[in-house]
Amino acid sequence: MAILDAIVYVVGEAIAYVVGAVTGRAFHIEPKKAQRIGEYFVMAIVGVFLFALIAVTFIYS
Description:
By secondary structure, this protein is mainly α. The protein contains two helices and no strands. Helix 1 crosses helix 2. The radius of gyration is 15 Å and the shape is flat. About 5% of the residues are buried.
C-alpha cells in the first residue's frame, strides 16, 4: 500500500506543479501563489471524484 500512496502523491504533486506553472505564466502570478492555486485545483478534483464515488454508492445500493 505504501507504493500506491507514493504514486498517488507524486501524481498529485506533478499536476499541482503543472497547473501552478501554467497559471503563474498565463496570469503573471508570483510562483508561491501559483503553486497554491495548483494545490487547490488538485484538492477540488479529488473532492469531486470522492463525491461522485459516494453518490454512485448511495444511488446503486
